[in-house]
């Protein structure tokens, strides 16, 4: 295990609530709302991997979209590197868009089928006016493709000619193009076949280490998250029920919901199995923001 270290907080989620309007299917019509994230506070520490786990509908994706500012909270705030992301505009917002990237579940729909892989990878460079010439962008696309384990020749191909795993690598290369400080990966492996899942998960975790970035990994798959994340946050019905280092949560889960999730993934003799686990460093657990 690595030595515990108190990494600085990169994202501070403070008492965030998000509701969605919900149309009730009655003859007279009607509206109610769904509480997707409920008064949730959590810190994401720099240079670490935070796994967000919970069942379907527990609010994980909504929280990921809030962190990436693809949604705005109804109340509470998300502080990224000391700035409230709901209030930033103009140049600050462009800088935020550069520093925070997302990787989504479905690599089939997240890439434009009419554009080459090289174009997809280099597009953020074009949008953010980096690598101005097409030859510079091509060179950078090749570099990024190789960085995620793809052959350089792939940049002239189209997404439809790629496997699911290759497409997800392209999506990851694209997310890396601007050298982000934070990557939010929302179920990045669940659309892939079993044999490819661990490859993509390992790639993300390796990049988190080598590219010196912070990774928020959203998944319903507690079994794999507990192996690759430094810290784990457990969500249930929009609420954060437990947060701590992956090792601590796996060894001594305190909330019944976490215990139930774990008992579904741990083998029958957990004590023996747990001793064999090689977890990522425990370190001090992420604190709930006040
Ligand atoms: N755009 C939306 N409009 C209305 N309701 C939404 C919207 N997005 C999410 N919800 C609802 O908010 C709740 C939380 O959804 P969310 O997708 O965040 O959960 P999740 O844990 O990521 O689930 P899953 O793993 O199935 O994606 C669910 O009840 C969902 O139906």
From TrEMBL:
Keyword Transport: yes
Annotated GO MF terms: ATP binding; ATP hydrolysis activity
Keywords (A to Z) from UniProt: ATP-binding, Nucleotide-binding, Transport
Domain annotation ABC transporter: ranges: 11-262
Gene3D superfamilies: P-loop containing nucleotide triphosphate hydrolases (3.40.50.300)
The organism's place on the tree of life at top rank: Bacteria
One Pfam family cited in the UniProt record for this chain: ABC_tran
GO biological-process terms attached to the record: peptide transport; transmembrane transport
Protein name stated in the entry: ABC transporter ATP-binding protein
């Amino acid at each position: 295990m690595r030595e515990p270290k108190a990494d600085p907080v990169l994202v501070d989620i403070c008492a965030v609530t998000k509701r969605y309007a919900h149309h009730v299917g009655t003859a007279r019509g009607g509206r109610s709302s769904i509480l997707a994230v409920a008064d949730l506070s959590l810190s994401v520490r720099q240079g670490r991997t935070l796994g967000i786990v919970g069942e379907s509908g527990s609010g994980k994706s909504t929280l990921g979209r809030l962190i990436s500012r693809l949604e705005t909270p109804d109340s509470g705030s998300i502080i990224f590197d000391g700035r409230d992301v709901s209030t930033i505009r103009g140049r600050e917002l462009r800088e935020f868009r550069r520093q925070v990237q997302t990787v989504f579940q479905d690599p089939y729909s997240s890439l434009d089928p009419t554009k080459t892989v090289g174009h997809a990878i280099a597009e953020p460079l074009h949008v953010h006016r980096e690598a101005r010439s097409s030859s510079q962008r091509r060179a950078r696309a090749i570099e990024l493709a190789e960085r995620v384990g793809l052959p350089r020749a792939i940049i002239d191909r189209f997404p439809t000619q790629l496997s699911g795993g290759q497409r997800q690598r392209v999506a990851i290369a694209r997310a890396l193009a601007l050298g982000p400080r934070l990557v939010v990966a929302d179920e990045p492996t669940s659309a892939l076949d079993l044999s490819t899942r661990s490859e993509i998960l390992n790639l993300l975790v390796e990049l988190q280490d080598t590219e010196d970035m912070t990774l928020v990994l959203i998944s319903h798959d507690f079994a794999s998250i507990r192996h690759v994340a430094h810290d784990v946050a457990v969500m249930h019905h929009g609420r954060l029920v437990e947060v701590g280092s992956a090792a601590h949560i796996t060894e001594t889960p305190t909330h019944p919901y976490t215990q139930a999730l774990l008992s579904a993934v741990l083998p029958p003799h957990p004590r023996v199995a747990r001793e064999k686990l090689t977890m990522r460093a425990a370190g001090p657990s992420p604190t709930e923001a006040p």
